[in-house]
User: Fold Phytase A from Guyanagaster necrorhizus.
Amino acid sequence: MMMMWVSVAAWIGLALYFPIYSFGSYEANLSVAPFSPNWAQYSPFVSQAEYHVPSNCIVTQVNLLERHGARYPTSGSAAQIVSAIDKLTAVGSYTNERMQFLVNYTYDLGVADLLPFGAAQAYQSGETFFQRYSYIVDQDHIPFVRASGSDRVIKSAMNWTAGFSAASYHVYNPSLSVILSEDSNDTLDDNMCENAGNSDEETNAWLAVYAPTITARINDGAPGANISNADTYSLLSMCPFDSVAKEKRSPFCDMFEPADFEGFEYSGDLDKYYGTGYGQELGPVQGVGYVNELLARLTSSPVQDSTQTNHTLDSNPETFPLNRTIYADFSHDNQMIAIYAAMGLFPQSADLDPTSPDPNRSWLASRLVSFSATMMTEKLECAGEEHVRVLVNDAVQPLAFCGSGDGLCSLDAFVESQAYARNDGDGDWEKCF
Ligand SMILES: *[C@@H]1O[C@H](CO)[C@@H](O)[C@H](O)[C@H]1NC(C)=O
Ligand SMILES: *[C@@H]1O[C@H](CO)[C@@H](O)[C@H](O)[C@H]1NC(C)=O
Ligand SMILES: *[C@@H]1O[C@H](CO)[C@@H](O)[C@H](O)[C@H]1NC(C)=O
Ligand SMILES: *[C@@H]1O[C@H](CO)[C@@H](O)[C@H](O)[C@H]1NC(C)=O
Ligand SMILES: *[C@@H]1O[C@H](CO)[C@@H](O)[C@H](O)[C@H]1NC(C)=O
Ligand SMILES: *[C@@H]1O[C@H](CO)[C@@H](O)[C@H](O)[C@H]1NC(C)=O
Ligand SMILES: *[C@@H]1O[C@H](CO)[C@@H](O)[C@H](O)[C@H]1NC(C)=O
Assistant:
């Protein structure tokens, strides 16, 4: 695997570097992939803030939690997408200019796998991580890496380690040490809580609000296709899926008006909020296991948890060491949402209204759980005292629940604030069964 930096600075006088990643038989050019903030959880990672450490502090430990990189649609979504596209291609002629590409269109996306684009983002994340934190890396302190057991998560973790290693000129070569089976106790997935509900009621209520005019417009452009509102959602989703797969703007994006994607985006925001976030009674408890592992690492003390942790793994220093400076865990969007909710990140003053989005809402899936989204929990030493801060996609979280809201909490106050996790979810875990 190799990487080239193509500098355009030389002829346009700007410090812009477009990375082109070569992975054996394929290349991924991160600069050409379009980004739209309205793609919700299908937005590629974009850093939300410039990284800097407060002047009187040094970082002594980092806990990275990262979503897998961009992927193909999962099997369920792919089936719905294909069914919607089939309705459009079956009619064969279109009165809408922007649908002409369908005359000769064949669906060609894979299923659920990590894309070259997603692999490149994971690789770049590993590089950036090394560059940022190299001062807490040495041969005894290379990252301890775990992944949830899905292929795309494992490959994201391995591309991250490859990027980390390359950035260190192969001096430090972390490996993926633990893969947690998604069929058993797994703090990096949301598969264990049997009674947890889903977001269908809320996303369907919103579909009935935003989709009908779009559906009517598409049906006008493809007379006889008779697509449904649910088909409209699937066709909208082809804009991000096809774009990240092809690394260029998909013709499906141009079938719609820009405002249509605001409806699509809110659907994603609702899905996360009511799926495993604050709007799901048994959402936050699914993040408790990870938070208890985090507390163990921050305090160098054994994991105490009776929810999703695997005690066999977490009580063994080979599979859950407590003497590292860097821990990197790879996971999924729904699980990261559960973890944010268990910790108290992105607090909401009221539940998201399924039929009326707040244009100023802070709950945006694109910021919370983009492809390759990151949460970094840093332990810092500031004037001799231990502190904690949390960054999501590089944005420092205020942590008003344990400090003054400037993003810095004392380690003790942070641990104290995590009572929900330390109490195994205040009885919620039992409600899962
Ligand atoms: C349809 O697509 C195929 C394969 O991409 C191509 O060979 C053919 O020329 C196209 N036909 C038209 C009418 O565009
Ligand atoms: C960390 O703990 C492991 C397992 O007990 C041990 O093998 C390793 O030498 C320790 N590393 C450091 C830097 O203390
Ligand atoms: C990175 O991801 C790609 C695409 O999924 C995969 O083919 C490749 O094996 C991964 N690289 C490593 C080092 O695992
Ligand atoms: C715990 O992890 C071990 C080692 O991976 C595995 O063999 C075991 O099945 C896991 N148990 C549960 C309940 O997840
Ligand atoms: C259009 O599809 C709906 C189901 O989505 C069906 O109930 C209706 O009968 C169809 N209309 C026509 C004209 O085929
Ligand atoms: C797996 O989780 C269940 C449910 O919390 C727990 O009862 C069991 O002890 C755990 N198993 C292991 C090996 O940690
Ligand atoms: C959203 O924020 C803007 C700017 O702060 C404000 O003018 C507007 O009233 C807010 N809208 C709602 C619905 O809260």
